[in-house]
Specification:
Peptidase_S8_Ser-AS, disordered N terminus, signal, 25% strand, alpha/beta, hydrolase, Peptidases_S8_3, Peptidase_S8/S53_dom
Length: 770
């Protein structure tokens, strides 16, 4: 089999300085990446090296020092500086420079209770975690993942996000033990954040502002806190989902989802790394945060941030930071993006990152819309009132393709006043649709899904009575409005929280999809986790809608996105790290992937938002399954050196210090990954893999089975693996052969697995024809 050469995308991206830009003398921020530190230098020596590098392109030493923004001195070797394109181009030509990355605003952004119970993690209401840790373990508790992991109490976890609201009950340190001696970080003080805001739960906090202020000027203190304090809400929410304490009687605005809120690793110690700027994230600030987190002793990092488009390894600061984290065996978990259902949109896709997609749960917030013709439609949130479609109430100058969207200043008050308005999703934000209906005098609105959005509905704190409906329900309402000929009415009834209201999980429409356009031989996302209507702590400086005209304040809020799915998987990674402290970050990723499930709570295959069968390009290996991940049987391990060899094949030759690429590096598809992705198969391909026995019984026999993609065969050699001890490794080859041609470009999906009497070690396969 001959796979056509995949031209490394980053080679073109390295040509960052076209001829016209060379004459541009405006200063911009660039990251000059030098790889890793080759030996033990002091921070002052590293700083001088970076100054020297800058002096080679600046007019004076003083100018060089003034231009430096960050000097990365821990695991990452490099610096951020203000440079002209011409100066950046000169530095890019130096032998010791791996890459030069231009920073720009909006290159990255954030990807924005029941979820843990639904995922099978036992966080029962009324169960006191701190007290349970003091009691003698019972036989029943011994088998519980949380208890085995000590609820994460030995772990230091990091969150890179918008900061934290330290007063939230989720971050109480009551009953917690002393801070681990392995902690090397600091509690950075600032605006409305002092040393007392760090405790035995939030053991450290930092903020990063230099990149933001280099571009925008001094931060307006009314826009964000010049400290680790969170003014946005996103960081507090993800931190609480990751490692928040148990809080009884928590609920969102209106009392929805009332119950016990908890993070997945409730006794883990939390280190907060805040990037300033709300939804704006700068390369240089995030890279500085990751460099500090690795040096501080963080063991798992959760990052619900991603680029606005897939980026090559040398143009992606998160990828670079995560590679250095992998070198120190730190697990990095990232959200996969919210640009679905369009294919090829998944981000954070290097093989050293655990990438997470978002799924829906079985919890609904159901009320009833009673239409004037008596038809009842079950709805998700909140009067008999006139009902009108936004398309029938639009002002005359609104474009035809926007009349039904309730966009700002689009509705005629004389047509809307006192009515319920049907607004279609598609353009504009969901919250601002409600604002527009309220501006025009509407009494409420129905947020209606289009065909592309299917069954995805969100419970949100709108500014007036609101309900969200599925696409099928939208069609019924539109049909009724048309038949009523201007006399349509509707009544919105109060909703209630209902569990198990439909088959779940099912994939969220917004969750970004494969294929992986940057690393085609790596299937992404890796797994899926709950990411819709997740209840967690919130910043009380941020209204629940984040709109400036919203004056409400809440302690807990719903939010949706792969941002919310990411900390679920990061928490599971932390629990596995506690149970298996010697496992590598790759082994932990493998355990989570190979134990994931492709079935919903009805025993059927997971579907997408429209009810169609979902694929590995949506959920990766499947929905993460915490109860199984601690005992995967076998793991696919990989080392930092393996990743450097992968980069050699990719075309990057000097990523590691004192590491020379072999003349013929192994092909990218031979990286020991727990899934298989083959672009443009032409005939037959043989792939190498190895597995390590981590089962409780050293003597184990595993048998191969496969469900190949349509028109193909998948075989393993050997097809039986014999193990005599824990830690033993066995190699095997997979041969994928195309027997029938089913069209160029389209992907087919299947899986293969290794089974013994107790374990099923399952891996997805994605193959396209050449």
């Amino acid at each position: 089999m001959n796979i056509p050469t995949i031209i490394p995308l980053f080679l073109s991206l390295l040509l960052l300085f076209p001829p016209l830009a060379i004459c541009d003398e405006r200063q911009r921020t660039y990251i000059v990446y030098l790889g890793s530190h080759t030996q033990q230098y002091t921070p002052d020596q590293i700083l001088e090296t970076h100054h020297s590098c800058l002096t080679s392109v600046k007019d004076s030493e003083e100018e060089a020092r003034a231009s430096l923004i960050y000097s990365y001195k821990h695991s990452i070797n490099g610096f951020a500086a203000s440079l002209t394109p011409q100066q950046a181009s000169k530095l890019n030509e130096l032998e010791e420079v791996v890459a030069v990355i231009e920073s720009r605003p909006r290159k990255y952004s954030t990807h924005t209770t029941r979820s843990w119970e639904f995922s099978g993690l036992n966080l029962a209401a009324g169960y006191d975690v701190a007290e349970s840790m003091k009691k003698e373990t019972t036989m029943a508790e011994a088998g519980d993942l949380l208890h085995r992991a000590g609820y994460g109490k030995s772990l230091i976890v990091g969150i890179l996000d918008s900061g934290v609201w330290p007063e939230a009950e989720s971050f109480s340190d009551e009953g917690m033990e002393a801070v681990p001696k392995s902690w090397k970080g600091i509690c950075q003080t600032g605006q409305e954040f002092n040393s007392s805001h760090c405790n035995k739960k939030i053991i450290g906090a930092r903020y990063y502002i230099k990149g933001f202020e280099t571009y925008y000027g001094r931060l307006d203190a009314t826009e964000d806190y010049r400290s680790p304090r969170d003014k946005d809400g996103h960081g507090t929410h993800t931190a609480a989902t990751f490692a928040g304490r148990q809080v009884r009687n928590a609920s969102a605005l209106g009392g929805f989802a009332r119950g016990t809120a908890s993070g997945g690793a409730p006794l883990a110690r939390l280190a907060v790394y805040k990037k300033i700027g709300g939804n704006t994230c700068f390369d240089e600030d995030m890279l500085a945060a990751m460099d500090d987190a690795i040096a501080d002793g963080v063991q798992v990092i959760s990052i619900s941030i991603g680029a606005d488009e897939p980026l090559s390894p040398v143009n992606d600061s998160l990828s670079i930071g995560a590679l250095h984290a992998a070198r120190k065996n730190v697990v990095v978990v990232c959200s996969g993006g919210n640009d679905g259902p369009k294919p090829g949109t998944v981000v954070n896709t290097p093989p050293w990152i655990l990438t997470v997609g978002a799924s829906n749960m079985d919890r609904g917030f159901l009320g009833t819309v009673v239409l004037g013709n008596g038809m009842k439609i079950t709805v998700r949130k909140t009067l008999r009132l006139p009902l009108i479609s936004a398309a029938d109430a639009a002002l005359p100058w609104v474009p035809d393709n926007e009349t039904d969207q309730c966009l700002p200043d689009s509705l005629a008050p004389e047509k809307v006043r006192g009515k319920i308005v049907l607004c279609l999703r598609g353009s504009g934000t969901r919250y601002l649709k409600g604002v527009e209906v309220k501006r025009a005098g509407g009494a409420g609105f129905i947020l209606a899904n289009t065909a592309a959005l299917g069954d995805d509905v969100f419970l949100e704190p709108h500014v007036l009575p609101t309900t969200a409906v599925t696409y099928d329900e939208t069609r019924e309402i539109v049909r009724y409005i048309r038949s009523a000929k201007g006399n349509a009415t509707a009544r919105l009834r109060e909703p209630r929280t209902v569990l198990g209201y439909k088959a779940a999980p099912f994939m969220a429409s917004f969750s970004s999809r494969g294929p992986n356009v940057i690393h085609p031989c790596i299937l992404k996302p890796d797994v899926a986790a709950p990411g819709v209507n997740i209840l967690a702590a919130w910043s009380q400086a941020s209204p629940p809608t984040k709109l400036s005209q919203d004056r409400r304040s809440v302690k807990y809020n719903f939010d949706s996105g792969t941002s919310m799915a990411c900390p679920h998987v990061a928490a599971l990674a932390a629990l596995l790290k506690a149970i298996h402290p010697t496992w590598s970050s790759a082994a932990i990723r493998s355990a989570i992937m190979t134990t994931a499930s492709t079935r919903n709570n009805k025993g059927r295959t997971i579907t997408d938002e429209r009810g169609h069968t979902a694929t590995p390009f949506q959920f990766g290996s499947g929905q993460f399954c915490p109860s199984k991940a601690a005992d995967p049987g076998l793991v696919y391990d990989a080392s930092y050196t393996d990743y450097l060899l992968y980069l050699c094949s990719y075309g990057l030759k000097n990523a590691g210090e004192r590491f020379n690429c072999p003349k013929f590096p192994p092909p990218m598809y031979d990286l020991n990954y727990p899934s298989v992705s083959v672009p443009k198969l032409n005939g037959t391909l043989t792939i190498k893999r190895s597995v390590m026995n981590v089962g409780g019984d050293g003597n184990a026999v595993y048998f191969f089975s496969a469900k190949p993609p349509l028109g193909m065969t998948v075989t393993a050699r050997p097809s039986v693996l014999f193990f005599s001890r824990v830690g033993e490794r066995k190699e095997f080859t997979l041969t994928i052969e195309a027997r029938e041609y089913y069209g160029e470009g389209g992907y087919g999906f299947g899986w293969y697995s290794w089974r013994d009497n107790y374990h099923v070690v399952r891996s997805p396969i994605a193959v396209s024809m050449g």
